[in-house]
Design a protein that fits this description.
This protein is α/β, with parallel strands linked by helices. Among the domains are: 45 residues; 89 residues, no CATH class; 70 residues, no CATH class; 142 residues, Leucine-rich repeat, LRR (right-handed beta-alpha superhelix) (Alpha-Beta Horseshoe). 27% of the residues lie in helices and 21% in strands. Helix 13 links the parallel strand 17 and strand 18. The longest helix is centred in the first third of the chain and has 14 residues. One of its GO terms (cellular component) is extracellular space.
Length: 608
């Protein structure tokens, strides 16, 4: 008797794709959706299981934080296991510190990845974590967790927060390590940083201690990115410690970022100079450095840095700097600062330049003459920005306009000028913008009686603008009308009018607008005749609407609901609205907010 052939389910086309295509598909899922989507994909198809799990473990994305569970007395604290962990969480079971210091070779954490449960009625299964002995995890926890052991050598990304895990042994093949509020650089015997490390981020505060001398002596040889963010009070020791690190930077370094809180130094100190000089001396030995971001750079060290960057630019075996961010600081008693000598060759050219002389409290306590001395020392040697330029001033001299104008490359596409409220716009109007500028930001710079002069001077780029920011300029509706008598630029995609003095909503918005930010205009509905009509007629292309710290009411909320109902489902899920759920005097009702939440993908309720 001949038996009928078994019926085979039709195979999916995805099962016939090569492995490299499947890995790219998993990377796309990881970058587009939360990690639990990637793990659900792994369980959905046997073909996708291996590439999806490998992507989750080896390339989990930036700042992956492991949930650390300490093991004491051959058990786990019960309160740590009472709640289920979210799918996609990384868990490390770590032996207690006193056991780890016994330097037993087995005293290494075991790493797990929380998978989706295959069944809500899953039978609890206990598992063991082995160090010098076996530790049994409570069965009630296993009924909530579905764990997959992650081989230690497969782990590539790691983040440690707070002080609870300063004793954790790091996986040997790490590429990315984030240490946050933590003094977790261990001693030479047990805890050397992996030589495979390519990206290191260190953020500490007064609550933790970090030995930068250990970091300098254990600097990974192939490091490509280093971020140091410090918020402590001992400014002198931090400067010396940073100098040690700068002197040991590896030749493979491509990105360097240094952030130090203003509370770390005082106006009478020479904070930052020792670190700056060490970095300047090291730059010739960093041929691959293309990004430098330093948020406490002494003005007196600018000339030497400029000379070092020029030498790097003309060196044939070194890559030129692509991004430069400097926030200048200085002591109240200024030293003699010689102006940098301009080289005979072409000037220093950098794609993205951000130089700020206004954001620190030191400059706010300086008089105009002192500020003029500082700016005169820095402006003549401004690098020529070829793609984007961001500059910040606390004061302005008319003669500086020509200097800034000479620093604008014909290929410049983004210009951002930040000042204090009332910075004379007449000086800005003298700057002739390159014709290719597409992104323009003028923040806290415009005197109201000079607005039209500024617009007239820069009219050659208005119609081609794609991004315009006029935040913190005390603008009123009448001045906006005067700035754009023929309406907004047709091709504009992003508009920021935050923290002005608008009493009505901006009209005749361009049809291709993607972002509109009106944050901080708390009286925006005072003279507004019909908020509902304005909201209903918003461009259908809009994806971000910022209304934090604005006194809005149900008229505007109902209009936004009606507008969102005209969007396609796919577009509506990408819309992000930031709205104050209550403010002084006027509020949006809870019913309207709930209806709006159902209509758009992201509704952020701010509280003013």
């Amino acid at each position: 008797m001949q038996h009928p052939a078994p019926i085979q389910a039709p195979s999916s086309h995805i099962e016939h794709l090569p492995l490299d295509v499947l890995e790219k598909l998993c990377l796309f899922v990881r970058d587009t959706w939360p990690r639990d989507s990637l793990l659900n994909l792994a369980l959905a198809s046997p073909v996708l299981y291996v590439p999806a799990i490998q992507t989750a473990v080896r390339a989990p994305g930036c700042n992956v934080e492991w949930r650390i569970i300490d093991i004491h007395n051959e058990s786990v604290e019960p309160h740590l296991l009472t709640q289920p962990l979210p799918v996609g969480t990384f868990v490390a079971f770590v032996p207690a510190r006193d056991r780890l210091q016994q330097s037993a070779p087995q005293s290494i954490p075991q790493w797990y990845l929380v998978l989706p449960l295959r069944s809500t009625e899953r039978v609890p299964v206990s598992f063991a974590v082995s160090t010098s002995g076996a530790y049994r995890i409570a069965s009630r926890a296993c009924s909530k967790w579905s764990l997959l052991m992650a081989p230690c050598e497969q782990i590539r990304s790691y983040k440690i927060s707070n002080d609870s895990v300063a004793h954790v042994v790091l996986p040997p093949s790490l590429k990315t390590l984030v240490l946050q509020n933590n003094g977790a650089i261990p001693d030479e015997r047990c805890y050397e940083l992996p030589s495979t490390l390519q990206s290191l981020s260190v953020s500490i505060s007064d609550r933790s201690h970090f030995d930068f001398a250990v970091l300098a002596s254990h600097m990974p040889p192939f490091l490509r990115s280093l971020l140091l963010s410090i918020d402590v009070e001992e400014h002198a020791s931090i400067d010396r410690a940073f100098a040690l690190v700068m002197a040991c930077l590896p030749a493979t370094l491509e990105q360097l970022q240094v952030e130090v809180s203003a509370e770390c130094w005082d106006t009478k100190s020479d904070f930052g100079r020792e670190c700056a000089r060490a970095l300047i001396e090291r730059i010739p030995y960093l041929p691959r450095l293309i990004e430098l971001h330093h948020f406490t750079w002494p003005v007196s060290c600018w000339a030497d840095l400029y000379a070092a960057l020029v030498q790097k630019q003309v060196c044939r075996v070194a890559l030129s700097l692509k991004e430069l961010t400097l926030y200048f600081i200085h002591p109240l008693t200024l030293p003699d600062m010689p102006l940098p000598v301009r080289p005979v060759q072409e000037p220093l050219q950098i794609d993205h330049v951000n130089l700020q002389l206004h954001d620190t409290g030191l400059f706010e306590r300086s008089d105009d003459e002192e500020l003029a001395t500082i700016v005169d020392a820095v402006l003549p040697s401004f690098p020529m920005a070829t793609k984007s330029l961001e500059v910040g001033f606390l004061t302005w001299q008319p003669q500086w306009s020509q200097v800034v104008k000479s620093r604008l490359s014909p290929t410049l596409r983004k210009l951002e000028v930040i000042g204090s409220t009332g910075l004379p716009s007449s000086g800005l109007a003298a700057i002739r913008l390159p014709p290719m500028v597409r992104d323009l930001s003028v923040e806290a710079c415009v005197e109201l009686d000079k607005v039209r002069d500024l617009v007239a001077s820069w009219s050659r780029v208005w119609e081609s603008l794609e991004t315009l920011s006029l935040s913190r300029n005390r603008l009123t509706p009448s001045y906006l009308t005067g700035m754009f008598p023929n309406g907004w630029p047709v091709h504009m995609r992003r508009l920021d009018l935050s923290f002005n003095q608008l009493t009505e909503l901006p009209r005749a918005l361009p049809p291709s607008l993607v972002e509109l930010r009106l944050t901080g205009n708390d009286r925006i509905l005072v003279d507004e005749p019909d908020p509902y009509d304005w909201a209903v007629k918003l461009p259908l292309s809009l994806r971000v609407l910022g209304l934090y710290y604005c006194r809005v009411d149900d008229r505007l909320g109902n209009g936004l609901v009606a507008w969102a109902q005209h969007l396609s489902e796919k577009h509506a899920q990408r819309v992000e609205i930031r709205i104050s759920c209550w403010t002084t005097g006027i509020s949006v009702s809870e019913d309207v907010l709930k209806e709006l939440e159902r209509c758009v993908g992201h509704l952020h309720r701010g509280r003013c």
